[in-house]
UniProtKB/TrEMBL annotation:
Protein name, as recorded: DUF4367 domain-containing protein
Secretion signal, residue range per the UniProt entry: 1-28
UniProt entry keywords in alphabetical sequence: Signal
Length: 243
């Protein structure tokens, strides 16, 4: 091989090697820069010790306030990591009642449909407990998020006054079976359904459910492990849901 050819090959190899080395250097620098950027972003998103103290103090304040007043409060978190990855925390949103009279006292102050004691319960069933839950979404929550972000505070709290329940549940028992009647918010995809529907659970899975929807925002269900007929379930559900 001629000297000129050898020189050309050597030169080309050097250029290629130099190019590869430069690419490695550039890639390493780029990766290092990205790591620094990610680390800085994570540091910017992490709460300071002082902010953590503010959040802890606010949680205690709201917890005590809810227990004292029975009101509902919603907390917006700037740092989701301080709230199990969620940006909202609800206090006093759901309440349980040990007697039907206590339940009815609260339910009678609400707008919309509430659940009544069915007049045609199977023999042997008596009231066990009730639950009422407020709304998880809506304009109040949208506004709260916007105000919380704008405030820049590690946690932002507002009292929520709600007048219509998103969730109501009555439970009756005969000592062996629990018969539960529930009002719930219908999923948007299911909202157009109308009529009575059975669940799709396997035959060996209990309790069994029957659902009632009328194309509105709310649906209603009855669940039981007893052997009462489908017609009986429908009549009990009708008796409990008075519009």
């Amino acid at each position: 091989m001629k000297a000129a050819s050898k020189f050309a090959i050597t030169t080309l190899s050097s250029v290629l090697l130099l190019g590869s080395s430069m690419n490695l250097v550039v890639d390493a620098a780029s990766s290092k820069s990205a790591q620094k950027s990610t680390a800085k972003k994570a540091a910017d998103q992490a709460p300071t010790a002082a902010e953590k103290k503010v959040v802890d103090a606010e949680i205690k304040r709201v917890k005590d306030l809810t227990a004292k007043t029975g009101d509902t409060y919603v907390m917006y978190y700037k740092y989701k990591g301080l709230n199990s990855g969620l940006d909202l925390n609800y206090w006093g949103l759901t309440k349980e009642y040990a007697s039907f009279d206590e339940y009815l006292q609260k339910a009678s102050t609400l707008k919309g449909v509430i659940l009544q004691k069915p007049s045609n319960l199977p023999e042997g069933y008596t009231f066990s407990k009730a639950r009422i839950g407020g709304p998880l979404g809506g304009k109040f929550i949208d506004d709260l998020r916007a105000e919380g972000k704008k405030s820049g505070k590690p946690v932002f709290t507002k009292k929520m006054d709600w007048k219509e329940a998103d969730d109501i549940r009555l439970e009756y028992t005969n000592g062996e079976d629990t018969l539960a009647i529930t009002k719930f918010v219908v999923d948007a995809k299911e909202g157009k359904k109308k009529g009575y529907f059975d669940d799709n659970l396997p035959a060996n899975i209990f309790p069994k459910y029957i659902y009632w929807q009328d194309s509105g925002k709310f649906g209603y269900s009855l669940s039981t492990s007893s052997d009462i007929t489908r017609e009986q379930k429908i009549e009990i559900l009708k008796s409990a849901v008075k519009k």
